Amino acid sequence: VLSVPEWIAHASLWVSAAFAVAARSLARQRRDDYVGRYRAWGWLAGLFVVTSFAAAAPLGQVVSAALGDATGMRPGPGGIGWWVGIATSVLITTVLWAVLPLRERSPTFVWLATAALAWSGAVVGAWLTASGTMVWTHQVLATRIAWWVGCSLALVSMLAATRAVLREIRGLVVPRQSGAERRGRREQKAEARAQRPMRSDDDVATT
Q: Is-above-0.90 flag for pTM?
Protein backbone atom coordinates (compact mmCIF):
# COMPACT_ATOMS: atom_id res chain seq x y z
CA VAL A 1 0.00 0.00 0.00
CA LEU A 2 1.39 3.36 -1.00
CA SER A 3 1.69 6.10 1.58
CA VAL A 4 0.38 9.63 1.07
CA PRO A 5 3.81 11.05 0.08
CA GLU A 6 4.26 8.21 -2.40
CA TRP A 7 0.86 8.94 -3.92
CA ILE A 8 1.86 12.60 -4.20
CA ALA A 9 5.15 11.63 -5.87
CA HIS A 10 3.38 9.43 -8.43
CA ALA A 11 0.77 12.12 -9.04
CA SER A 12 3.57 14.64 -9.60
CA LEU A 13 5.13 12.38 -12.23
CA TRP A 14 1.85 11.87 -14.05
CA VAL A 15 1.05 15.58 -13.99
CA SER A 16 4.60 16.25 -15.22
CA ALA A 17 3.92 13.88 -18.10
CA ALA A 18 0.70 15.78 -18.87
CA PHE A 19 2.54 19.10 -18.96
CA ALA A 20 5.24 17.57 -21.17
CA VAL A 21 2.54 16.47 -23.61
CA ALA A 22 1.13 20.00 -23.52
CA ALA A 23 4.61 21.39 -24.22
CA ARG A 24 4.88 18.99 -27.16
CA SER A 25 1.60 20.23 -28.61
CA LEU A 26 2.70 23.85 -28.22
CA ALA A 27 6.24 23.31 -29.53
CA ARG A 28 4.82 21.58 -32.60
CA GLN A 29 3.49 24.96 -33.74
CA ARG A 30 6.97 26.48 -34.01
CA ARG A 31 7.88 27.30 -37.59
CA ASP A 32 11.64 27.20 -37.00
CA ASP A 33 11.69 23.56 -35.85
CA TYR A 34 12.92 21.85 -39.00
CA VAL A 35 14.09 18.61 -37.34
CA GLY A 36 11.04 17.79 -35.22
CA ARG A 37 12.55 18.49 -31.81
CA TYR A 38 9.06 18.88 -30.39
CA ARG A 39 8.88 15.07 -30.27
CA ALA A 40 11.38 15.06 -27.42
CA TRP A 41 8.67 16.42 -25.12
CA GLY A 42 6.60 13.34 -25.87
CA TRP A 43 9.58 11.12 -25.05
CA LEU A 44 10.07 13.02 -21.81
CA ALA A 45 6.42 12.43 -20.92
CA GLY A 46 6.93 8.73 -21.54
CA LEU A 47 9.98 8.75 -19.28
CA PHE A 48 7.95 10.25 -16.45
CA VAL A 49 5.34 7.53 -16.85
CA VAL A 50 8.00 4.78 -16.92
CA THR A 51 9.63 6.31 -13.84
CA SER A 52 6.33 6.14 -11.99
CA PHE A 53 5.87 2.47 -12.92
CA ALA A 54 9.48 1.68 -12.00
CA ALA A 55 8.92 3.12 -8.52
CA ALA A 56 5.80 1.00 -7.95
CA ALA A 57 6.98 -2.22 -9.64
CA PRO A 58 10.40 -3.94 -9.83
CA LEU A 59 10.96 -2.81 -13.42
CA GLY A 60 14.56 -1.87 -12.76
CA GLN A 61 15.33 -5.26 -11.23
CA VAL A 62 13.82 -7.06 -14.23
CA VAL A 63 15.84 -5.01 -16.72
CA SER A 64 19.04 -5.35 -14.69
CA ALA A 65 18.61 -9.10 -14.32
CA ALA A 66 17.90 -9.56 -18.03
CA LEU A 67 20.94 -7.53 -19.11
CA GLY A 68 23.08 -9.23 -16.48
CA ASP A 69 22.13 -12.67 -17.79
CA ALA A 70 22.65 -11.58 -21.39
CA THR A 71 26.07 -9.99 -20.89
CA GLY A 72 27.37 -11.82 -17.84
CA MET A 73 28.16 -8.46 -16.21
CA ARG A 74 26.31 -7.23 -13.15
CA PRO A 75 27.48 -3.75 -12.16
CA GLY A 76 26.37 -2.91 -8.67
CA PRO A 77 24.24 -5.00 -6.31
CA GLY A 78 21.93 -7.21 -8.33
CA GLY A 79 23.08 -5.52 -11.53
CA ILE A 80 21.30 -2.30 -10.58
CA GLY A 81 24.01 -0.36 -12.41
CA TRP A 82 22.43 -1.36 -15.71
CA TRP A 83 19.15 0.30 -14.84
CA VAL A 84 20.81 3.39 -13.38
CA GLY A 85 23.08 3.83 -16.40
CA ILE A 86 20.34 3.38 -18.98
CA ALA A 87 17.86 5.62 -17.15
CA THR A 88 20.45 8.35 -16.64
CA SER A 89 21.64 8.30 -20.26
CA VAL A 90 18.13 8.38 -21.70
CA LEU A 91 17.01 11.15 -19.33
CA ILE A 92 20.02 13.39 -20.06
CA THR A 93 19.72 12.90 -23.83
CA THR A 94 15.99 13.58 -23.87
CA VAL A 95 16.22 16.63 -21.62
CA LEU A 96 18.97 18.20 -23.71
CA TRP A 97 17.14 17.50 -26.95
CA ALA A 98 13.92 19.04 -25.61
CA VAL A 99 15.14 21.98 -23.53
CA LEU A 100 18.09 23.33 -25.53
CA PRO A 101 15.92 24.88 -28.30
CA LEU A 102 14.03 26.96 -25.70
CA ARG A 103 14.95 30.63 -25.60
CA GLU A 104 14.05 30.84 -21.90
CA ARG A 105 15.59 27.54 -20.89
CA SER A 106 17.47 28.55 -17.74
CA PRO A 107 14.56 28.06 -15.26
CA THR A 108 13.71 24.67 -16.74
CA PHE A 109 17.35 23.56 -16.60
CA VAL A 110 17.73 24.73 -13.00
CA TRP A 111 14.64 22.92 -11.78
CA LEU A 112 15.50 19.75 -13.72
CA ALA A 113 19.07 19.80 -12.43
CA THR A 114 17.78 20.14 -8.87
CA ALA A 115 15.35 17.27 -9.42
CA ALA A 116 18.17 15.14 -10.87
CA LEU A 117 20.30 15.95 -7.82
CA ALA A 118 17.53 14.81 -5.49
CA TRP A 119 17.01 11.65 -7.52
CA SER A 120 20.75 10.99 -7.39
CA GLY A 121 20.53 10.99 -3.60
CA ALA A 122 17.68 8.50 -3.82
CA VAL A 123 19.72 6.30 -6.16
CA VAL A 124 22.69 6.32 -3.77
CA GLY A 125 20.42 5.36 -0.89
CA ALA A 126 18.82 2.56 -2.91
CA TRP A 127 22.28 1.34 -4.00
CA LEU A 128 23.50 1.16 -0.40
CA THR A 129 20.31 -0.54 0.72
CA ALA A 130 20.55 -3.15 -2.06
CA SER A 131 24.19 -3.84 -1.25
CA GLY A 132 23.40 -4.30 2.43
CA THR A 133 26.49 -2.37 3.49
CA MET A 134 24.58 0.26 5.40
CA VAL A 135 20.89 -0.12 6.14
CA TRP A 136 19.29 1.92 8.88
CA THR A 137 16.02 3.73 9.40
CA HIS A 138 17.27 7.22 8.70
CA GLN A 139 18.88 6.10 5.44
CA VAL A 140 15.64 4.58 4.16
CA LEU A 141 13.72 7.71 5.17
CA ALA A 142 16.28 9.99 3.51
CA THR A 143 16.06 7.91 0.32
CA ARG A 144 12.30 8.25 0.20
CA ILE A 145 12.39 11.97 0.93
CA ALA A 146 14.93 12.49 -1.87
CA TRP A 147 12.65 10.59 -4.24
CA TRP A 148 9.59 12.60 -3.25
CA VAL A 149 11.44 15.91 -3.56
CA GLY A 150 12.80 14.96 -6.99
CA CYS A 151 9.31 14.16 -8.28
CA SER A 152 7.96 17.48 -7.00
CA LEU A 153 10.82 19.42 -8.59
CA ALA A 154 10.26 17.59 -11.88
CA LEU A 155 6.70 18.90 -11.85
CA VAL A 156 7.94 22.45 -11.27
CA SER A 157 10.39 22.09 -14.16
CA MET A 158 7.62 21.01 -16.52
CA LEU A 159 5.54 23.99 -15.44
CA ALA A 160 8.48 26.26 -16.27
CA ALA A 161 9.03 24.49 -19.62
CA THR A 162 5.38 24.78 -20.63
CA ARG A 163 5.41 28.48 -19.74
CA ALA A 164 8.57 29.03 -21.79
CA VAL A 165 7.12 27.27 -24.85
CA LEU A 166 3.86 29.18 -24.52
CA ARG A 167 5.66 32.53 -24.33
CA GLU A 168 7.60 31.67 -27.50
CA ILE A 169 4.43 30.76 -29.36
CA ARG A 170 2.84 34.06 -28.33
CA GLY A 171 5.90 36.02 -29.46
CA LEU A 172 6.72 37.34 -25.99
CA VAL A 173 10.37 36.25 -26.16
CA VAL A 174 12.97 38.09 -28.21
CA PRO A 175 14.60 35.64 -30.66
CA ARG A 176 18.23 34.84 -30.00
CA GLN A 177 20.68 36.12 -32.59
CA SER A 178 23.16 33.74 -34.15
CA GLY A 179 26.89 34.38 -34.13
CA ALA A 180 26.82 35.52 -37.76
CA GLU A 181 24.03 37.99 -37.02
CA ARG A 182 25.90 39.44 -34.03
CA ARG A 183 29.08 39.80 -36.11
CA GLY A 184 27.09 41.52 -38.86
CA ARG A 185 25.63 44.02 -36.40
CA ARG A 186 29.08 44.78 -35.00
CA GLU A 187 30.44 45.33 -38.52
CA GLN A 188 27.56 47.67 -39.36
CA LYS A 189 28.21 49.71 -36.22
CA ALA A 190 31.93 49.87 -37.05
CA GLU A 191 31.18 51.06 -40.60
CA ALA A 192 28.76 53.68 -39.28
CA ARG A 193 31.41 55.03 -36.92
CA ALA A 194 34.00 55.05 -39.70
CA GLN A 195 31.69 56.99 -42.03
CA ARG A 196 30.81 59.57 -39.37
CA PRO A 197 32.37 62.97 -40.39
CA MET A 198 35.29 64.07 -38.21
CA ARG A 199 35.29 67.59 -36.75
CA SER A 200 38.16 69.72 -38.06
CA ASP A 201 40.19 72.25 -36.08
CA ASP A 202 38.37 75.16 -37.77
CA ASP A 203 35.04 73.77 -36.67
CA VAL A 204 36.30 73.43 -33.12
CA ALA A 205 37.60 77.04 -33.17
CA THR A 206 34.30 78.44 -34.44
CA THR A 207 32.38 76.62 -31.76
A: no
